[in-house]
Amino acid sequence: MTDGVTIGQAAAFAGITIKTMRHYHKVGLVDEPARDSSGYRRYGSAELLRLVQVRTLAAAGMPLADIGPLLDSDAASFAAALVDVEQHLTERIAELTERRDTLHRLASGDRTLLPDRAVAMLEGMPTLGFTPYDVQTAGSPSCSPRPWSPKVSTNTSPTSNTLCKTRASSN
């Protein structure tokens, strides 16, 4: 009976590929064990624990370059680093939430997404003889290019089509 598990078994245990395991060896995150008499590397409990720690920290958003020194640090440094990772993730979540909200506002035609100059032009259109329909169409999201929804306007009003084309070409 042999002690330890093979690289494939260790990788499966941690939920990673053998290629990832070899990368961890290459960057020094997990020590590469010596080969046994049959030529296989055998990973013991200490290597498996380290592997799971590396994988867990990487999955939590910690850069690989920071993981090795962190695992080798004292408990206070480790705890402080985890607080930093949590803060970074919280900031990233806020960023992504803001982007999603912007997309929702864009889809609803919210004019606050337009540059101030464009809003001023839209607000001044009625004084130039444009109808309320023309103003609404020029400021609508269906008039702006949206790569995920290439909607073609069915409006046949020449003024509105011109406004859409003008607005689309200025973006």
UniProtKB/TrEMBL annotation:
Instruction: Output the InterPro entries linked to this UniProt entry.
Output: DNA-bd_dom_put_sf, MerR-type_HTH_dom, MerR_fam
Decide whether keyword Phosphoprotein is in the record: no
Q: Where is the composition biased (Polar residues)?
A: 151-171
SUPFAM superfamilies reported in the protein's UniProt record: Putative DNA-binding domain
Note the superkingdom of the native organism: Bacteria
**Residue ranges of the region described as Disordered:** 139-171
Q: Which residues form a coiled coil?
A: none
What are the GO MF terms of this UniProt record? DNA binding; DNA-binding transcription factor activity
* Key words, A-Z: DNA-binding
Q: Where is the HTH merR-type domain?
A: 6-73
Query: Know the name of this protein?
Result: MerR family transcriptional regulator
**Whose protein is this, by species?**
Amycolatopsis carbonis
